[in-house]
Amino acid sequence: MGMILKFLNKKDMEQRENHLYDIGNRGVALMMILWVLILLDIIVLQFASSMRTEMEITRNFRDRVESYYLARAAMELARFELMYVASVSKSTTVADNDGGLDFRFEDEARDTNPQWKREVALGRGMFSIDYNVKEGKYDLNYLVTSRNESELEEVLVACGVEEASTELSMLKRSIIDWVDDDHDLTGPDIGAEDDWYKDNWQGYECKDDRFYSVEELALIRGLRPEKWDSEEERDEKKELLSKLYQLVTAHPFLTHNKLNRNVMSPPVGEIEYPDGVPEMPIDKIRPTHYEVIASGWIKGSPVERKIRAEFQIKGRKNVQLLSWTDNYIPLEEWDPNQGIEEDEVI
Predict the structure, then answer these.
(1) Is 278 in contact with 299 (CB distance < 8 Å)?
(2) Would you list the DSSP string of 136-185?
(3) What would the pLDDT profile of 178-189 be if each residue is shown by its tens digit?
(4) DSSP label at residue 111
(5) In this predicted model, what pLDDT tens digit does every residue of 16-56 receive, in sequence order?
(6) CA–CA distances in Å: residue 104 to residues 5, 84, 133, 207, 268
(7) Where would I find the beta strands (DSSP E) of the chain?
(8) CA proximity to 66, closest of 121, 124, 118, 120
(9) Among 176, 231, 319, 331, which has the highest number of CB atoms less than 10 A from its own CB?
């Protein structure tokens, strides 16, 4: 009897152990299944995120292409409107108003200066046209000639540079050194030629040629923010550049030696000359050199494309394209030190 009881107890214990083993196996299997589900969730989420990113990239690419052609449509409309301007007699004087050209077809008087900006809806997008007349600002390539240094000084003084100061002399000479074809400084540590830019880790030399755009000013000594400048000095240089951009213009092929009173920008008109400093000649007739900035964008999309072009009216119904920039970046978004960290040598 005792042996039978021992056998039964032993069998019962084995069954109990097997039962506990089965429970343990089921627990391991459950954990493995949970881990597999977690991994599958991660893969699915990663795939969904990747697909969402791909869709956004595709949408932005589509919007970018459409925005570009909206900007092209704006530029074509601007060319058509400038053809109207070219059809007006060159001797026509611009009317005394806000300088805007009304292209509507009502029986209203029109003037001959398209210096204004407007927006137009087209399909699911929008475009804008911004006209700027070049004769309303001082031409840098005219100011840097030796006979016009006094006018260059007056422009710098109008931007806030102290009159008859060392800073004024240095800035004036640095700007002139940028375009002249010699490699000699005017005086000790006055101006900047190739050696100065090389010795101060700029990575470039003087251009030794005319200004092609006003953006080049941001590369010149005294105007370019440097690593050793304090935050206050950098802000002063940016402010000075901003004021200069409002007063001067430049073109690789043209040099304007006249200012048109009818289209003169307000900052230019506020410059006061002392006795003995002659003003630049002023033209009273229709301007002939226009900058057009055409922008296109899709409603609700962050993508925007800008095209910049320059046109010159050569004659009656004759408008010549002088320059074209497909992907234009406005001056306020352009920084010669963009992407440079504080601890890097520039």
Answers:
(1) no
(2) GSEEHHHHTSGGGHHHHHHHHHHTTPPTT-HHHHHHHHHHHHHHSS----
(3) 888 877 776 666
(4) -
(5) 655 555 555 566 667 788 888 888 888 888 888 888 888 88
(6) 113, 12, 21, 45, 30
(7) 117-122, 125-133, 138-139, 248-249, 259-260, 282-283, 289-298, 304-315, 318-325
(8) 124
(9) 319
